[in-house]
Amino acid sequence: MAISISQSTGGFSGPTTINNNLYNLLEPTKYTSLYNYLNEVNAPDIRKELIKTFGNQGITGFLTMTGAIKNAGTADQVEWFEEARLHQIQRARCKTSAGALTAVTFELAVETEDANFSTSVEIAAPTAYPLIVRVGDIILVDGDKRLYVSAVNLGADEFTAVPLTTMGAALTATAIYDMPIVGNMFEQGSDQPSRFLQSNVVKRTNPYAIVKEVYQVSGSQATNIGYIDLGNGDYRFYVKGEMDTRQRFMDKREMTLLLGQQITNTANLTDDIDGTEGYFAALENRGMVTSGLVGSTTGGFSDLDALIKEMDKNGCPSEYALYVNTTQDLLLDDMIANGYGSNTTGGIAGSYGSFNNDRDMALNLGFKSFTRGGYTFHKHSWKLLNDPTLLGNDDVAQNLVAGVAIPLAKVADAKSGAKSPALEMCYKAAGGYSREMEHWVTGGGVLGFTNDTTDIAKFHYRSEVCLVTRAANQHVLIQGL
């Protein structure tokens, strides 16, 4: 018996043979839907390149570019010592007003160290300034009055000083004076001073911060192929997510080293974390801080000159890297152009010591250099301060930071005398185990990782780091406000 074959013709009554496609193409409705038909079967013309609309968005590299070295640490915090001022200043309050020639009694003032005085003397967590003058010392008061210390009462924290000559104007009662000790004088046949001054070092500490991140992909998504070539012919889009997560982790680790603070709000922060002092906090606490942009005032170089004078007071090295936002960068360009035309070194041979004395090397790394007052500044635009999703957000008021000036020289350790870099990135490590940059993957067979049971691959990132800012008094924080 012959078999019977039936076939749908798509609603068109035509021959019921196997090869009926030619008849279906002639069906009138096919002419109106032909575009839709072809649109479904034609391959889309998709370009494989991924366009970086905002350029390279990673902000890491600042610490490496400024010469910060990496060192391993073996405790929960890093400790280092810094030298105090060789010549200390006696700060004291005038008890009573005195005439042009009469003796003056001073008493110690119990107060907190203020920002202006901190650039002149380093005292860790002061509650009172010590009594350091001795009988026979000559002190300088108000910049022009020289007084001879005639008596010291250690028990009462007081001392008496007599003008060497007519003072001209009496000192103000209850006023606080900062008095350099400029010398001493003794009569013939007198004994040596009864007290000596002990050299001081300041101990500083900084805890580590543990920075973490995670990314995951399911087994199904790990095998999907997309349109975009993510590099080396790899079209699996989860790779893009993993690369971005890694970059965000590296950026956040660097920003933690820059913006971190040691935690004092322990009453409201219940987590057992100490925080870590970042670069900006170190400069706010111990560095030179401007009250606005450099070059924003009328007169061009007046801001820079004022800064250079403060740098001289702090014994700063002669070469600096300036990392600045666009606003500060343009102000410096205008200042240089107005002062020197197109000569970016100010008519003075630029020094490129940190770039092997190679001007082209500095330019290739994005630095533009100029010289002023014996200092050479290598200027560089800082992406972190221009990114509107980070510190370049105008709502952050342009900002917390508009730039920094970092000395490009090593500093001597006060305790050992060894030369050390101004910035040091420390990470926990011991016995061959390093927590500088830990990366591992867990998964239930996904991508070959078989240490879990879930149908995912989870990428883990962890780092335990802190930043040591040595001689912060030689660094400059440029505030945008």
Ordered list of secondary-structure elements with their pairings:
Elements: H1 21-25, H2 28-32, H3 34-41, H4 62-65, E1 69-73, E2 77-83, E3 89-94, E4 104-107, H5 115-118, E5 137-141, E6 145-153, E7 158-163, E8 176-184, E9 201-207, E10 209-218, H6 219-222, H7 238-259, H8 279-286, E11 288-289, H9 302-313, E12 319-324, H10 326-340, H11 359-364, E13 368-372, E14 375-381, E15 403-407, E16 410-412, E17 419-421, E18 423-430, E19 433-434, E20 438-443, E21 456-469, E22 476-478
Parallel strand pairs: 1-18, 11-22, 12-14
Antiparallel strand pairs: 2-9, 3-4, 3-8, 4-7, 5-6, 5-8, 6-7, 10-21, 12-15, 13-14, 15-22, 16-17, 18-19, 18-21, 20-21
In short:
This protein is α+β, with helices and mostly antiparallel strands and 481 residues long. It has helices at 21-25, 28-32, 34-41, 62-65, 115-118, 219-222, 238-259, 279-286, 302-313, 326-340, 359-364; strands at 69-73, 77-83, 89-94, 104-107, 137-141, 145-153, 158-163, 176-184, 201-207, 209-218, 288-289, 319-324, 368-372, 375-381, 403-407, 410-412, 419-421, 423-430, 433-434, 438-443, 456-469, 476-478.
